[in-house]
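In keeping with the milestone schedule agreed at the kick-off meeting, the structural modelling team has produced records for the first pair of proteins. Each record is given below as a sequence line and a C-alpha cell line. The laboratory manager (R.T.) confirmed that both were archived under the project's standard naming scheme.
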Amino acid sequence: MTTATLAPRTPAPRTLSPRAQRVSIVVAGFGQNIVLTTVTTFILVYLLEYAHISVQGLAVVTGIITAAKLIDAVSDPVMGSLVDMTRTRWGKMRPYILFSAVPVAVLSTLLFAIPDVSETGKLVFFGVCYFLWGFAYTVCDVPYWGLIGSAFPDSAERTSVISHVRAFGAIALGLATLGMPWLALAFSFSGETTATGWTIAVAAASVVGMGMFLLAFFNTREKAQGERERLTFAQLFGTLWKNTPLLMVLLGSILGFGRYIVQAGGAVFVVIAYGNEGYFTLIGAAIIVGMVLSSFLTPLLLKRMSGKSLILWSSVAGAVFYVAMYLVGFASIIAIMVFIFLTGLTLGVFLVVQTTMLADAVDDIERRTGVRNDGISFSTLTFVSKVMNALAVLVFGAFVVVAGYQAGVTVTPQMQNTVFIAITLVPALSCLISAVPFLFYKVGRPATTLRT
C-alpha cells in the first residue's frame, strides 16, 4: 500500500474586498493628515508663544524649515525610486508604511517639546528634530501615494479614491486646526495653555493619527508586479523628465504656493490682528468647510469640464477672492471668515484636480513609453506639497520679520497690515502666476470621467 506524503499548507493570504481597501486608504490618509496639520499649522505659534523664540530666532527657524523642506522635496523622487526598486513579500510600498509610523509619531512630539535652555540650544534642538521629522515623513508619505496608484489600477476607481482622500484629509485638517488648541488647553490642567499642554496634546494626536495610518499596511494589497525588469535610477528619472504634462502640474503647483500661506501663518495672524489665538478656530473652520464641500463636489464638476479648465478657473477665482479680502480689511472677523471660506472652495478644487491631472499624466507616459513606476511618479506629489509648504512658511515668516513682531511687543497698525498683505495679496499673485503652466498641460485622455 502506498502512503501519500502531504506537503505542508501555506496559509492563504487574507482576502480584502475593494471596499475595505478604499476605506482603509481614506482612514490612513485621515490619520496622517491629523499629524501633518498639527505640525505645519501650529509649529510657528508654539515656537513664538510657548518656546519664546525671538524675532531674530524666528528668522533662523524659517530658514531651517525652508532648507529642510527643500531637501525633503529633492529626496522625494529618490525615495520614489527606492520604492520602485524594493522587492519584499509585503510588496514594495507597504513595508515603508509599517516602519515609518513610530518615528513620525515620536519626532512630531519632540518638535513640541523644546527644552528650556538658551535660544541657541532651542534652535539646534528644533533644527535636528525638524530635519529628522522631514526625513521620516518622506518615508511614510511617498509610498502611501504610490500605494493608491498600485492598489487601484482602474483609473476611474483611483480618481474616486483620490477625491475621498482629499476630502477626508480636509476634514482632518479642520479637526486638527479647530481641536488642537483646545486639546492643548485641556492637557495644560490650568486656566491657560502651557508648553507642556502642547507637548502632551501633540503626543496624543500623533499616536492616534499614525495608528490610523497603519491601516494602509494591514488592510491593503499592492497590484502584482510579476517578473518585471528592475529599472535603474537613470531610467526612472529619464522617464520622469519625458513626462511634460506631469512637469507642468509640478511647476503650476509650486508657483501656487500662496494657497498654503493662510494655513502656515493663520495662527500667528490672528494673534497679531485680534490678540486672540482662539480666533484661528473660526478661520480654520471657514477654510475647512470650503475645502470639504469642494472636494466632494469636484468629481461632479469634472464630468462637465476638463481638469485643465477647472484648475484655471479656480486659480482666477482664488486670486479675485484674496484681493477682495484685502480691500474689505480684517476689522470684521465675519467678513474674513466669508472670504476664507471662498478661498477654501478654490483650494479644495485645486487639490483634487491637481492629483487627478498628475495621475492622468502618469497613465499618459505609460502609454507612450510602456513604463509605469508608481513610486517615483507619485513622489512628485509629495515633492510639490513640501516645496509649497516651505515657500509659504518662508514668505510668511519673512513678512513677520519685516513687521517686527515677536511675543510681548506692542502691536501697531502697520505691523498688522504687513502681515495681512502676506495672507491676501501674496496668495492672489501666486494663484494668477500658477495658472500659466497649466495652460500647456495636454494628455491623450483628459480627466473628465470619474465615478462618485
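The second protein of the pair:
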Amino acid sequence: MGLVNPDTKEKVHPGMESTVMARSSDSSQNGEAPLRAAGVELTMDEEYGAAPDGGLRAWLVAAGGASVFFCCLGFANSFGTFAQYYATHQLPDKNPDDIAWIGSLNSYLQMAMGLFGGPAFDRWGAKVVRIAAILYIIMMMVLSLCKEYWHFMLVQAVIMGTLQGFMQIPAFAAVSHYFDKKRAAALGIVVAGSSVGGVVIPIAVARMLNGSTLGYGWTVRIIGFMIMPILLFACVVLVPRLPPRATSLWLGSALRDLRFMLVVAAFFFASIGMFTPLFYLPTYAVTRGVEATMAGYLLAILNAASTFGRIIPGVLADKYGRINALATGCLATGVIIFCFSAAKTEAALIVYAIFVGFFSGSITSAGSAAISICCPDPRNMGTYMGMGLALGSLGLLIGPPIGGALVRSYGGYFEFSMFGGAVCVFGGFTALLFKLLSPEGLLGIV
C-alpha cells in the first residue's frame, strides 16, 4: 500500500518509503517543515531533491525507456517493409495512400495518446506502462490473424497505436524525472532504442516474409515473442522518481506559452515531411529495380544511421542548445528529402538511407528535449510531453497519406519529395523563430 509523506500528505510510490522518510527527517532538521507549516511554498528541488543526472537507477530507467521504444516506435519504423508486402499480398487492391493510412494513423496515435498516457503516468506511475505492455503483446498476436483492410486499421493502426502511446510518453516522463542537465542526451538514448528496433525488426520481417516459407502470420507472431522479454525488462525498471500526483489532461497555461507553441509547430511541420522516406523508401526502391528483400533492408540501414543521429545530437544539444539541435535537424532533413527522387541506383539508395536516417533521427530526440525546457514544474512533465507530442504529431497523421496521394496523382516521386522537403525546412525556420524571440537571440545557445 505504501506510506504517506508526512510533509506533503501525498501517497508515496511503493519502493520510495525509505527515501521519503529520510527526506522528511532532513526537512525537519534544515527548517523546511516549519516553512511548509507556515504556508511557505517549496520548490520541487527543495521538496524532492534535484534530479541525480546519473547513477545506476537513473541509467536503468533510461535503458527501460529505450526498451519501450525498441518495441513500439521500432516496430512502427518497420511499416515500410509491411507496406511493400501488403501491396502485393494482403491488400493488392488498395492504393499506396490507402495502405499509408494504416502506418500514419498508428504513428499519430502513439504520440497523440500521450495526451492521456502522460497524465496517467503522473497519477498512477508504472502501472500504466505494465498494463499497456500486456495488451500490446496480445494485440501483436491478433495482428498475425488479420486479413482485411479494416482488420489492419483497427488492430495495427488504432489499438496498437493507442497502446504504444501509453508506453512511450510515460517513458519520456520517467527519464525526465532522473535527468536535468543531461536530459537531451538521456532522451536521445531512449529514442535510439527505436532505431535499434528499426534495424532488427525490418531485417527480421523482410527475411521471414520474402526469404522463408513462414508466411505473414508466423512472421508477426515471432516478432511478438521476440519483444516479450524486452518489454518485461522495461516494466521492471521503468519507475518514476517523484511520487504519483493528480494532474490535468490539459494545461491551458501551456497553450498561452509562445515558446511551447513554437516548439510544437516546428515538430508538427517536421513530422509531415520526415516520415515520408520511412514509409515509401522500400516501395520506391522496388520501382528502381532493387530486389524486395534488399528494399526492406534499406529501412534497417536508415534506422541504424538514426541511432547515431539520436544520440550524438542529443549529447551536443545539452552543450549547444536543444532548440539549436531541433532547428539544425529539421533544416538538414528537409534538404535531404528534396533529393529523394535523385537516388536511382541501389548504391545511391543505401547512401541516401544513411544520410536521411542520421539527420531525421535528431528531430524526435531534440523535439522531446525542447518540449521539456518549456515545462516549469517537472511534476507536470508527463502532461507537457503528452500535450506537445499529441499536437505536434498531427503531422504524422497527414504527411504519409498526402505523399501517397502525390505519388498516385503524378505517377512518380519528384513532387512527393518536394512537398516533404519543403514542410520539413519550414519546421526548421519555425524553430529559428523561437530563437529569434528568446533573450539569447538567434545566435545564442537555446
